[in-house]
Design brief:
With 398 residues, this protein is of the alpha/beta class. The protein has nine helices and 14 strands. The strands form three sheets. The protein has a five-stranded mixed beta barrel. Helix 3 packs parallel to helix 7.
């Protein structure tokens, strides 16, 4: 091979050397919008971009300068550097200064303010998660590792939960529409909980979860929604609208995956507590019933004794009254008998009186007699037949 050539290593080292030797490239002030911000071992890694291009940025020792947020517009003072082994061009930042929030970030803040004013983030709209969900839908991409993490976490705690996976695109232009449609399908599938999930990514990758379409779809859900988007530091509009925000998809799985073993122990403990309480209440009821019967028997005994005393007293009073009545009756009877005895004709006859009787009847007055009239005189021991020889009248003067 006669043609002259250089190796890749020679090319990359040559270009790297050119950049290092070019004074105009030292301490450049470059303005752009940052995205994909991450901090590892106190070093900042991100992408600086504008409408036409982008360049990776690395800042060693981020504590000595400003830490930007995704979507923020900044001014970076630094020097470009070509890492020869990989042929990767990066901007090594010395200082970072905020210039103003980037366009994408401004649009996001405006949308958040709009949705907040409409009440989409209001606490009173939040629905509580069921304590023991048995049907859980996961709206995510089957292409990612998220669904495997959720499934393995759920099964570690619980083998009863039925997982329904709604496969959607989680980034790209069609993602907002697909996510919103997936949420509606999950909401109509009779699920107990819906998890909206995706793994970490750049600020731009997570933008579908900052869309108004997805936010309104979550707000319209009848089923409780858990938003589990990105890493712990990533916060999206879907987190604000959802009923519960989980820091990661795995954390969302732990929220719904109640432990069957713990639940069984809990129910067993509660049943034992209920049995103890029931036994105590039965014992207490028996004591109360026995005490109530004892008090009732005592009251009945007291009342019976009171009535018995009244009956005895009434009986005694009635007996006394009866004795008095009988005594008075006997006295009156004796008086009547004495009166009758005094008026008894036989007694009169015994005392020397006679009773005169003719064929016409009793003769009680002198005028009942006539001379020659026969009559009979009755005495106590017999009678005498007689004839009237003379009738006279008493001398009233004598």
């Amino acid at each position: 091979m006669d043609r002259t050539y250089i190796t890749v290593s020679e090319l990359n080292f040559y270009l790297s050397d050119l950049i290092q030797k070019e004074e105009l490239l030292h301490n450049l002030s470059v303005m752009g919008e940052v995205s994909g911000v991450s901090v590892k071992n106190h070093n900042l890694y991100c992408t600086l971009k504008d409408d036409g291009a982008q360049i990776p940025v690395c800042c060693f020792g981020i504590k000595r300068t400003y830490l930007p947020q995704n979507g923020e517009k900044v001014l970076i003072v630094g020097t470009p550097e070509l890492y020869a082994p990989y042929g990767k061009l990066s901007l090594i930042a010395y200082t970072i200064e905020p210039v103003g929030k980037g366009k994408l970030h401004q649009e996001l803040e405006a949308l958040k303010a709009k949705l907040a004013a409409e009440g989409l983030f209001a606490p009173e709209h939040k629905k509580e998660l069921p304590q023991y969900p048995l049907k859980v839908a996961v709206v995510t991409s089957l292409a990612g590792a998220v669904i495997n993490d959720i499934r393995s976490t759920v099964r570690r705690y619980n083998g009863l939960i039925d997982l329904l996976v709604v496969d959607v695109q989680v980034q790209g232009k069609t993602a907002p529409r697909e996510i919103a449609e997936g949420l509606r399908r999950a909401d109509g599938a009779g699920q107990d909980v819906v998890i909206l999930a995706r793994g970490g990514g750049s600020f731009e990758d997570l933008m579908p979860f900052n869309s108004e379409e997805v936010a309104r779809a979550i707000y319209a859900m009848k089923t409780p929604v858990i938003s589990a988007v990105g890493h712990e530091t990533d916060v999206s509009i879907s987190d604000f609208v959802a009923d519960v925000r989980a820091l990661t998809p795995t954390a969302a799985a732990e929220l719904v995956a109640f432990s069957t073993a713990d639940t069984a122990r809990l129910f067993t403990d509660r049943l034992e507590d209920a049995a103890r309480i029931l036994a105590f209440r039965l014992k207490e009821s028996r004591f109360r019933t026995t005490d109530a019967f004892r008090r009732l028997a005592h009251r009945m005994e007291v009342r019976f004794e009171r009535y018995r005393t009244r009956v005895i007293s009434s009986t005694e009073r009635a007996g006394s009254a009866m004795q008095q009545a009988i005594g008075g009756g006997e006295l009156r009877l004796q008086k009547v008998l004495a009166t009758l005895s005094a008026r008894n004709p036989a007694a009169l006859l015994q005392s020397g009186y006679f009773k005169a009787q003719s064929a016409d009847g009793m003769l009680t007055r002198a005028s009942d007699f006539a001379e020659g009239k026969t009559f009979r005189l009755y005495a106590a021991d017999g009678y005498v037949d007689a004839i009237t020889t003379h009738v006279g009248q008493n001398d009233t003067k004598q």
